[in-house]
TrEMBL record:
It comes from the Bacteria. This is PilZ domain-containing protein. InterPro entries: PilZ_domain. Residues 105-176 form the PilZ domain. It comes from Pseudomonas vancouverensis. GO terms for molecular function: cyclic-di-GMP binding.
Amino acid sequence: MSTLDEEDRREYYRIEDSIALEIRPLSATEALGHEVLQDASPLFNLLSELHLSEFESQHLLRQINERDRNIAAFLKSQNKRIDLLSQVIAITVLGQIGEPQPVIISEGGIDFQHPTPIDAGSRLSIKLVLMPQALGLLVRARVTHCDRKGDGFDVGTEFEHLTDAQRQLLARYILQRQAQERRLAREQLESGN
């Protein structure tokens, strides 16, 4: 018999990925808050803000494109330059966080390996750096399970209080990764014939 948590988590498409993440327990005050978390690293905060501002301006770019294609083309080229800069920042941030590790991620949460157990129900701050899009997100999560696996623990979490922009950026990342996986599988199938 499945629990409500399992049923809720099934409504999101999950992918296996390799991402850099940093886990930190939240204080009681932080766990109760709903405001967007800020990181101590100015570079990570800059990376997050770059993507959030891009997301928030997408509808404006579409409107400009309808009125003046030349200005829209110029703005798209500027956006590409900003994306390249954000990749440089992300590489620097990766050096601070550590090497990417295997995870299972969805819009609803993330499962990862951890060297020590984390109590179910605990509230965490999870810093994610998703490549190659150089997307940096700092989110709240609640631990749904923690099971021994090999030398460590398999920890499952559910995201809490995501902003609309964070949720949509995460959804876009997952859809892009899913499309990339399908494209690679199709290419392998075609090259095998």
